[in-house]
Inverse folding.
């Protein structure tokens, strides 16, 4: 995945997570989604044009559209006050595709760390489907915290490492990445549960 675009995906995921937590107004998050969405559509188009028919290069660029379309969709929906179900059901498609890309990273590209990252994204987009597509609003705070906590380790950090030549991908590093991901998801669950408990106590 293009590392410049990945860097800014970390930024928009952070903002969208804060939006789900009620810290950023919906319309305020719209422009950044449009900016990053446009970047994530222009970049793979240029890469595919320059690939000269190289199927591996085209495959590598194709995944960026999943996120480009997501953020354009979210940005337009936020600014136009559209219903969220369309974004939610598209997120189900993204989650399924992310699992496929994870398998490709593990078994074809020899990049197990990015395989773990793709699985983390599959989890996040599955949560978007549950919250936005199926209306399971009880998961909103958990989803918000999961997005906030996973945004940087799955996007900005590997982007900076790749751009500085410090990115490595092997079995032990992938296991470490998976362990960090599990801890962050568990932390998101604890934070969302703690807030819910506080709200229930205040109501009582």
């Amino acid at each position: 995945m293009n590392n410049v675009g990945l860097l800014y995906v970390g930024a928009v995921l952070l903002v969208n997570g804060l939006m789900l937590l009620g810290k950023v107004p919906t319309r305020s998050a719209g422009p950044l989604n449009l900016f990053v969405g446009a970047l994530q559509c222009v970049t793979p188009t240029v890469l595919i044009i320059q690939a000269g028919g190289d199927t591996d290069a085209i495959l590598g660029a194709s995944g960026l559209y999943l996120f480009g379309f997501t953020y354009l969709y979210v940005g337009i929906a936020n600014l136009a006050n559209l219903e969220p179900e369309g974004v939610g059901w598209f997120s189900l498609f993204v989650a399924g595709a992310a699992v496929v890309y994870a398998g490709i990273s593990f078994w074809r590209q020899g990049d197990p760390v990015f395989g773990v990252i793709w699985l983390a994204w599959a989890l996040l987009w599955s949560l978007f489907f549950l919250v936005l597509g199926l209306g399971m609003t009880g998961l909103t705070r958990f989803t918000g915290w999961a997005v906030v906590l996973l945004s940087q380790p799955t996007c900005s950090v590997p982007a900076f490492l790749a751009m500085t030549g410090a990115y490595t991908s092997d079995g032990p590093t992938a296991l470490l990445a998976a362990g960090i991901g599990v801890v962050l998801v568990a932390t998101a669950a604890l934070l969302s549960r703690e807030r819910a408990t506080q709200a229930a106590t205040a109501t009582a």
About this structure: The chain has one domain: 3-196.
